[in-house]
Amino acid sequence: MTNATRSTRPATALVGLDGEHPTALANRLGLEVGSLATVADIDAARQQTVILVRPPAPQPFSSTTDHDLEAVEATFVAFVHALQRATIAVRENRESESHHSIAILIPSDAALGTRDAVLPSMLVGAVLSFTRTMAIELKKDAITANSVLYGNLDDDAEASTISTLLETYRAATTLTGQETYTSSGPNLGRIKP
Amino acid sequence: MSTAHNRVALVTGAGSGIGRAIVDRLADEGATVLLTDLPHVIDSLDTTALPPGVETHALDVQDASSRATVIDTITERHGKLDILVNCAGVGRDARLTNIKDEDLAFTLNINLFGAFSLIRRALPLMQAARGGAIVNIASRAWLGIFGSGAYSASKGGLIGATRSLALEVGELGITANCIAPGYIATPLSATLPQEVLDKTLRSIPVQRGGVPEDIAATVRYLALEGSYMTGQVLTVCGGRSIGDPTSR
């Protein structure tokens, strides 16, 4: 990957899963035009891959079905595919000197646990643990993997905080495997997952 | 009278290892215990060696009809369920880019979705018991572990879901907790390469590997004494989770 090629691409690829195109979020985060990407678009020309994981809507656990579990599985598999794609892209361009940042956006309420959110918490718990494992595995590839646990992506102040955090992840080569809550400390006074 | 007298327990993946130790421990306390595992495992058991109060049933946790059959059996024979221990688990190690979709599905279906599908079916029986204890056997791998992404995710999903479940069923008198074992000497862990095993044992602060009875004792506490504890993860790993898990 040449510097000339790198300069033609936005620094960050924002990837939605399950066909989602988070245009409004890209704007709110102040990402460059062209930052929205599908899993297939992920390449090493970007410095960062941001994956937005949307859990299913809350509902009482007793009213869920095996079909709902299959939907959780589908989203999780799509998430794994995005990570695989980013990793393969980086490995195929090893001449690149800079590190690659992977950041995962997941909702803090599902991570911390809420009533009627068994399936959202299931998905987010799986994503959190998988990201921890990837942070360990991908160190040797100079890929960092961090989780951002958001509260409300429509809130301007929080979006600004996340934008700053993503910028930090892009620049910080030694920051990996960390989990940051961006909505005024919803985890305070609680045992973290 | 025994602590668990008149209590009915269901343990999955109980043909050997941790699950079997849990069955033995709960049976020793006086519970009626349904020892469940895959049909070929159940068929191979020496039932004469089982403690009193243990019933054996075939159960494939990833099969909906199999889950329904076991729950129906409990309903007919006992009318309630007090203790559910989800212990069935598998692991197929692979680093990120080598993880295949079918391996991911296999691991998640047994370790995570099968467990929660069974919980959903069992909840009415636990309500019939006017409360009870759900204990999900997770793993220290939920904290992250090299080369086991699918396994780690399945256990992280188990822990995440258990937190929200605890908030939902607490008012029913049902507790839901996880146990996260570290290295435990079982048939599954015996498949680890010797080099990995040696390194693992060196990283355990208490200077020994765990045994299934360590986990069984923790299940016993949660199931029989821990009615004020819910939504928690008890990490039973000889201290490896607070030290450097990769240290030699």
Give a quick rundown of the structure.
Chain A has 6 helices and 6 strands, in the order αβαββαβααβαβ. Chain A has helices spanning 3-7, 23-28, 66-91, 108-112, 118-137, 156-171, and strands at 12-16, 36-37, 48-52, 100-107, 143-150, 179-181.
Model description:
With 193 residues, chain A is of the alpha/beta class. Chain A has a single domain, classed as Rossmann fold (3-Layer(aba) Sandwich). Chain A contains six helices and six strands; from the N terminus they run αβαββαβααβαβ. Chain A has a six-stranded parallel sheet, sandwiched between helices. In chain A, helix 3 packs parallel to helix 5. The longest helix of chain A is centred in the middle third of the chain and has 26 residues, at 66-91. The radius of gyration of chain A is 16 Å and the shape is globular. Chain B has 248 residues and is α/β, with parallel strands linked by helices. Chain B has a single domain (8-236), classed as NAD(P)-binding Rossmann-like Domain (Rossmann fold, 3-Layer(aba) Sandwich). Chain B is built from seven helices and seven strands. Chain B has helices at residues 17-28, 39-44, 64-77, 101-128, 149-169, 194-202, 212-225; strands at 8-11, 32-37, 54-58, 83-86, 132-137, 174-181, 233-236. In chain B, strands 3-2-1-4-5-6-7 form a seven-stranded parallel sheet, sandwiched between helices. In chain B, helix 1 (17-28) links the parallel strand 1 (8-11) and strand 2 (32-37). In chain B, helix 1 (17-28) packs across helix 7 (212-225) and helix 4 runs parallel beside helix 5. Chain B is globular and about 50 Å long. The termini of chain B are far apart. The chains are: A alpha/beta (193), B alpha/beta (248). The interface between A and B is large, with 47 and 45 residues.
